[in-house]
Amino acid sequence: MIVQTALLIGVVIFSVLAIVLKDLLKSAIALAVASLLLGIIFFRMNAPYAGVFEISVVAGLITVLFVLTIALTKTDEEVRESRLVNWVFPLVFIAFIVIDALVMKGLLGKVPALASGAESGTFGEVLWRSRTYDLVGQIAVILAGVFSVLALFRKREKND
Amino acid sequence: MTNTWYLYVFFAAALVGAGLLGLLAKKNLIKLFIAIEVIGKGVSLMLLGTGFAKASILTAQALVITYIVIEVSLVATALALIINIYRHTRSLDVRRLAKLKG
Question: What pTM value is reported for the model?
């Protein structure tokens, strides 16, 4: 429990660092570390498939895509952020955490346990048998993503 | 619900809150997208935490994997859009987009 809480605190800290840090490359790496810690949490929650996907896809592939984009959009001109934001963001976030903790403390024990039937079978059976149709939709989403990337990077014709 | 569930909900809400604050405060397009990613992390933590508390971790896992796969195509499309915007405006400032009229 203590290890799990420490990992969760690490996820929040690295996610906040990813938003707050000025250097884009550093914030992409902070996001990758947060994903890595989240993947370890998933492993500890007995969800190995979700952990593997989180570490390999989110911490690996998405970080590579971010770094590639940062390299392709290297600019001398920095985007000017207002200085007020640097002070306001941590303060508002701490206030949010305090309110969050108070609300959770107030709710403790008040949310009734949801009815749940015992799950049977393996992960593969649950994934392929009980969720067949939305997997087809998922394939459609991936294809739509591929086509949109191809459309965005297509070569311009001479008439354009 | 068990006490562990409240812990997961607390941290998931913290992640979603941090992402929303980042979306409100930042002006860099890539930073805005990193904030959206942080919100997504909160949502997947919430899904798996609830599955863990309800002892239906397999369904929650299947949902999280679906979410991660869709997240990848979302990231690829959005980053391609960001590169195209950069080619047009030579800047990553989201305020410049308001000037793209006509």
Answer: 0.88
